[in-house]
């Protein structure tokens, strides 16, 4: 029986995925900072669900959750790094402590989880790691530079990790969701307390009080959960998986724009080489 470990299961995509995984009959260690938020999931699946308190910035809690998974189910076969939150600030407005905390959760928390499960996956020569990123890991909008930076970091780390562990039978995929109807743009969205008037027309429209997208996002987290299960069960995985029609459109436009710019500046780019020897 495949065992999943999913972080950030109290709400949103993490909760939807945890429910779908358990409903499909898999074992799952579901985690959250507040274990009471997991009671419904565990009570509905007493034989296949185990709950653990995990703040991904707390390595002791991570180790305890891995031990629980091993004692209950024998191994962790699928790790989903879902825990994280958004942060809005123009680059100049960002608070150093808030930005450090953002990286501690969104990037270093995922790294800590990966390092905790890899010894077991290496021993069994199998495993799947899904790192939940965002389309913000493919392009950055004004006011989301720091959030994008954490997701760009996740994607860069994942690219290297994928190549390091593939010979060991371990698969790694980055998941890039678009806008989904979760708490991400509501309760889970943080922002700076520093407001600089000169950024009113750039970062300003994305401040929480001006952002009207919460509750209107096109993505359905239940459908995303089932899509992820289907992908994990497949024989091959993409290196990156876009979720949502908006994600496909936005990232495609960004890649097209990047290619046009490369072509436009190709002569300058290639002018910096040493002369070719004959």
CATH architecture: 3-Layer(aba) Sandwich
Straight-line N-to-C gap: 62 Å
Characterize the biggest β-sheet: 7 strands, parallel
What is the number of E strands? 9
The helix/strand order is: EHEHEHEEHEHEEHEHH
Low-confidence stretches: none
Characteristics:
two-stranded parallel sheet, 9 strands, Rossmann fold, 278 residues, globular, 7-stranded parallel beta sheet
Summarize the structure.
By secondary structure, the protein is α/β, with parallel strands linked by helices.
How does this model look, in words?
The chain has one domain (3-244): Rossmann fold (3-Layer(aba) Sandwich). Helices cover 44% and strands 15% of the residues. It has 8 helices and 9 strands. It has helices at 12-23, 39-44, 59-73, 96-124, 145-165, 221-233, 245-264, 266-270, and strands at 3-6, 27-32, 49-53, 78-81, 86-88, 127-132, 170-177, 189-191, 240-243. The strands form 2 sheets. A 7-stranded parallel beta sheet has the order 3-2-1-4-6-7-9, sandwiched between helices. Strand 2 (27-32), helix 2 and strand 3 (49-53) form a beta-alpha-beta unit. The termini are far apart. The model has no long low-confidence stretch (mean pLDDT 94).
Helix-strand blueprint:
Elements: E1 3-6, H1 12-23, E2 27-32, H2 39-44, E3 49-53, H3 59-73, E4 78-81, E5 86-88, H4 96-124, E6 127-132, H5 145-165, E7 170-177, E8 189-191, H6 221-233, E9 240-243, H7 245-264, H8 266-270
Parallel strand pairs: 1-2, 1-4, 2-3, 4-6, 5-8, 6-7, 7-9
